[in-house]
Design goal:
The complex is a heterodimer of chains A (258) and B (235). Chain A has a domain of 68 residues. Chain A is 40% helix and 24% strand. Chain A has 10 helices and 10 strands. In chain A, the strands form 2 sheets. Chain A has a 6-stranded mixed sheet with strand order 6-7-8-3-9-10, sandwiched between helices. A 4-stranded antiparallel sheet of chain A has the order 2-1-4-5, sandwiched between helices. In chain A, helix 4 crosses helix 5, helix 5 crosses helix 6 and helix 6 runs parallel beside helix 7. With 235 residues, chain B is mostly helical. Chain B has a single domain, classed as MetI-like fold, CATH 1.10.3720.10. Helix content of chain B is 75%, strand content 0%. The longest helix of chain B has 31 residues. Chain B is flat. Classes of the chains: A alpha/beta (258), B mainly alpha (235). Chains A and B meet through helix 3, strand 6, helix 4 and helix 6 of A and helix 6 and helix 7 of B.
Amino acid sequence: MTDVSVAKEDVAATGDLVVLKSVNKHFGALHVLQDIDLTIARGEVVVVIGPSGSGKSTLCRTINRLETIDSGTITIDGRPLPQEGKELARLRADVGMVFQSFNLFAHKTVLENVMLGQIKVRKSDKKEAEEKARALLDRVGVASQADKYPAQLSGGQQQRVAIARALAMGPKVMLFDEPTSALDPEMINEVLEVMQQLARDGMTMIVVTHEMGFARSAANRVVFMADGRIVEQAAPDQFFSNPRSDRAKDFLSKILHH
Amino acid sequence: MPSPYVTHPEAREIVFDFLEGYDVLGAFWMTVKLTALSAVGSLIWGTLLAAMRVSPVPLMRGFGTAYVNIVRNIPLTVIILFSSLGLADIFGVTLGTDDFKAQGFRLAVLGFVAYTAAFVCEALRSGINTVPVGQAEAARAIGLGFSQTLRLIVLPQAFRSVIGPLANVLIALTKNTTVAAAIGVAEAAALMKTMIENEAQTLLIGAVFAFGFVVLTLPTGLILGWLSKRLAVKR
């Protein structure tokens, strides 16, 4: 809780990449984010878990301002999130995002999906963008699908392309908003493996997920949210073996015992 | 009156001799020119209007909404007459020509563009609504701005989903160009009126011109229908 986050700030004062301070958001009468304080250090992998409706997806989406906030501040690499406009677009290019429903551009091929941002936002030349795109598609294991359209790929393949598309921008931090929740069970692992590799390579990651296995093996820290608040945060071992709050104990007892 | 079904060459000449001395093809060519120019113009203006209607700027949204709701509820005849009598005669808008015929043509195109764009805008806007919101979110998430997101991601998908409705608008436009006769543009309907006044074969003249319009619009519908299937975005 608060004492933990204070400790974190002390440890990584210079390396803080994403800092949320007393962030609040309402959807009408619903107070979805309540005084959220969260600091993510450079190279850290933070997994956000919690029951549905706890605000974890919303939290993830506020970090690149796909959701606006009512009060509080969010800074990325020392710069506060700007208002909608060119500045914000520039900042979003530095923050990779992977969605639950993939959201690959349906009218463009896989290769074009990965090239588009490089050409239109980073202003790379076409040849350079294509080389980088092919290398990234190879890295996530879908190089052979480069000329197909998203609808021709399986969910797992689409999500790996989406990861490659985000990586093509050379992001400072990657946000994953329930990246495996829309996948058939047999495709979850291929996506998690790519994410695990990314974590090993030192990418800063904020992952909203229900995959406890991934949280255990790849996360530096687990953040547990319920009812719009961060209830507890701890190292994965500590959190899963010895949760302190009753809310977390209750949540874990429901998901881990079958 | 000899039957039009007689196949004797001379008989055919007698049946259709009322066409002699009239430039029917020329009149339909004028219809085609009116339609083509107005179609291109209204596609551009309609797209801009649609972009305004979905833009985050309240003033633009307001303008787009007001324009569409006013213009599509005014009868086309009123708009065409206004562009001739109002714009040209009262405000002296000449559209860069002193030639009366050329001026009438340009004013007619202006009127058709103004009118048809409202329908193009609404067709396109319904197309924009078929593009899942995640597409625009993904575009913004990689750092594309509003206009890039619209131009590169949303509109290309929206256009493909509304080729069918746009074909309807184009067919309606083709037929609507007959209103230009009201301000003296020598297109098909104007010639038909002249011919009906001068010749006896009223029914046949009507049939010839009806057939002419079907020849123009039927392929439009068929080709665009085929294109709409071919270009559909698979999800």
